[in-house]
Amino acid sequence: MAASSVFKAGLFNHKVAVVTGGGTGIGKAITSELLQLGCSVVISSRKLERLKSAAEELTLKIPSSSPAKVTPIECNIRNEDEVKNLMASTLKLHGRIDFLVNNGGGQFSSPANMMSAKGWKAVIDTNLNGTFLCCREAYNAWMKDHGGVIVNIIADMWKGFPGMAHTGAARAAVDNLTKSLAIEWAHSGVRINSVAPGTIISKTAMENYKEYGPTLFKMSVPFSPAKRLGVPEEISPAVCFLLSPAANYITGATLKVDAGQSLYHSIWEIPEHDAWPEAPEGENTDVLREIMDKTKSKL
Ligand SMILES: CCCCCCC/C=C/C(=O)SCCNC(=O)CCNC(=O)[C@H](O)C(C)(C)COP(=O)(O)OP(=O)(O)OC[C@H]1O[C@@H](n2cnc3c(N)ncnc32)[C@H](O)[C@@H]1OP(=O)(O)O
Ligand SMILES: NC(=O)C1=CN([C@@H]2O[C@H](COP(=O)(O)OP(=O)(O)OC[C@H]3O[C@@H](n4cnc5c(N)ncnc54)[C@H](OP(=O)(O)O)[C@@H]3O)[C@@H](O)[C@H]2O)C=CC1
């Protein structure tokens, strides 16, 4: 069951968004909520077939009252020409780009001393350079003259994270890029903010972290004051808020959406409680429940 948006219907009627990595996990949840609110969305990533089936599935959920459309466009954000094509094709299709959500990204887990230069570069190229290219192209192609809003999805990069040196460095860099662009592009009416999710259960995250996953989840749950992980439907409302006029006076900011996970220091004891609400119904809520049950029994 799709979570229904807390925002008013029609909030983004006739707006146009580009969501990188929009066919899976967090990007798909953001796309789904934008479509519900009337925003047309171009979803992009490397795997066109997966994008096409996500677009078909999402189209079925668009309310009949919404003017929104979802379109898949293949684009590897590491490739400058493909990024140029993504923005040019969006403009050809819709005539505007109001929102850009830089969500496409990822990493693998590896101790830093074992990391090949190629692996390091691949992660920096995807998460930092890809985000820069998408921002620059959306700005030059449209937002410079018409304004717009950009949200960069980063990660909890305030603490060290073993096995994640490459992505931590890239996400911290994106957070700083966000602040510099907020200043440089304010005169064009462009706002740009970052969102740092806590540990979120997404299908691809689970597939990609088959071995690392259990450790990640085992580590994340006790570090969460809420004593649970999140689902993609808990990230998308934060993104919609930042895209909306309710955030008109917010730029260059970083919004942590992690139920306090990044605040935890191991010297502190989190008080026992069981009052935190359950995750909302979403695509991965059942998976979350299963993991939480398994994790609890091992703690
Ligand atoms: C700061 C704290 C962060 C906390 C994060 C907490 C939890 C986060 C969860 C998530 O982010 S969930 C989202 C997860 N989804 C993904 O990570 C999927 C996307 N990931 C990828 O696509 C890859 O990891 C990639 C490296 C970003 C891109 O891979 P791609 O296959 O396109 O790159 P290549 O150019 O083929 O490979 C380059 C190079 O990279 C090395 N490498 C790639 N994968 C691995 C691996 N699993 N283990 C070790 N090394 C890897 C390797 O050197 C590759 O070179 P070759 O070996 O192919 O010569
Ligand atoms: N899940 C979590 O706990 C957390 C996730 N994040 C970040 O949130 C974002 C979404 O993650 P999540 O939904 O969990 O995981 P997913 O793996 O589902 O999402 C990653 C998306 O990025 C796309 N992508 C990866 N590399 C490229 C590339 N070179 N060019 C274009 N698209 C690319 C993938 O599509 P394709 O393979 O088709 O290219 C995929 O759709 C990622 O940046 C992730 O690192 C941050 C903190 C925590």
Automatic annotation (TrEMBL):
Its main location: other. SUPFAM superfamilies: NAD(P)-binding Rossmann-fold domains. Pathway: Lipid metabolism; fatty acid biosynthesis. Interacts with PEX5, probably required to target it into peroxisomes. Participates in chain elongation of fatty acids. Catalyzes the reduction of trans-2-enoyl-CoAs of varying chain lengths from 6:1 to 16:1, having maximum activity with 10:1 CoA. Has no 2,4-dienoyl-CoA reductase activity. It is found in: Peroxisome. GO terms for molecular function: trans-2-enoyl-CoA reductase (NADPH) activity. GO terms for cellular component: peroxisome. PANTHER family: PEROXISOMAL TRANS-2-ENOYL-COA REDUCTASE. GO terms for biological process: fatty acid biosynthetic process; phytol metabolic process. Pfam families: adh_short_C2 (PF13561). It is an enzyme of class 1 (oxidoreductase). This is Peroxisomal trans-2-enoyl-CoA reductase. It comes from Danio rerio. It catalyses: (2E)-octenoyl-CoA + NADPH + H(+) = octanoyl-CoA + NADP(+); (2E)-decenoyl-CoA + NADPH + H(+) = decanoyl-CoA + NADP(+); a (2E)-enoyl-CoA + NADPH + H(+) = a 2,3-saturated acyl-CoA + NADP(+); (2E)-hexenoyl-CoA + NADPH + H(+) = hexanoyl-CoA + NADP(+). Keywords: Fatty acid biosynthesis, Fatty acid metabolism, Lipid biosynthesis, Lipid metabolism, NADP, Oxidoreductase, Peroxisome, Phosphoprotein. Its EC number is 1.3.1.38.
